[in-house]
Write a structure and sequence with these properties.
With 155 residues, the protein is α+β, with helices and mostly antiparallel strands. It has helices at 7-12, 17-27, 141-154, and strands spanning 39-45, 48-54, 63-68, 71-76, 97-102, 107-115, 118-125. The chain has 2 domains: 1-33, no CATH class; 35-154, Immunoglobulin-like. Strands 1-2-7-6 form a 4-stranded antiparallel beta sheet, with no helix packed on it. It has a 3-stranded antiparallel beta sheet with strand order 3-4-5, with no helix packed on it. The termini are far apart.
């Protein structure tokens, strides 16, 4: 597979870092990407999602969910296990992991829950009022001119 160097893009643009980062992540070889633990991403509303991660064998104290710089980072580290156990077959993996999810602007995490071996993380997009589209009223010519004259008289 070809690899692309996006360094010239970083040098020649200002303010498009997120787009370049997104392209960089998309073009990165994902064949070596970790598949543990398995997860689902579901759309729960127009501006809502839920990430469900299979974390069998981990307790609430072993899990950590953190949001930092438009990224959701889920980590788990199992507390020291009882060394006295002897397993004949060990199929439930409880190895430490770190899973990262890139988040879009204005996406926040209102909460997370750990139920039946599944870690559920809810996400919502809340666009600030200043960034939402708003309708501009169109005045007729006479009313607009009258307001302009009033503004001149006040100055």
């Amino acid at each position: 597979m070809r690899t692309f160097d996006l360094a010239p893009l970083y040098r020649a643009t200002v303010g498009f870092d997120q787009i370049a980062d997104l392209m960089d992540r998309a073009l990165t070889d994902t064949s070596n990407a970790a598949s543990y633990p398995p997860y689902n991403i579901e759309k729960t509303a127009d501006d809502g999602w839920r990430i469900s991660i299979a974390v069998a064998g981990f307790s609430d104290a072993d899990l950590n969910v953190e949001m930092r710089e438009n990224a959701l980072i889920v980590t788990a580290k199992k507390a020291t296990e009882n060394e006295e156990r002897t397993y004949l077959h060990r199929g439930i993996a409880t190895r430490a992991f770190e899973r990262r999810f890139a988040l879009a602007d204005h996406v926040r995490v209102p909460g997370a829950s750990h139920v039946d071996g599944m870690l559920h993380i809810d996400l919502v997009r809340e666009v600030p009022e200043a960034l939402k589209p708003r309708r501009i009223e169109i005045a007729n010519g006479e009313a607009f001119e009258a307001k302009a004259v009033e503004a001149k008289e006040l100055n």
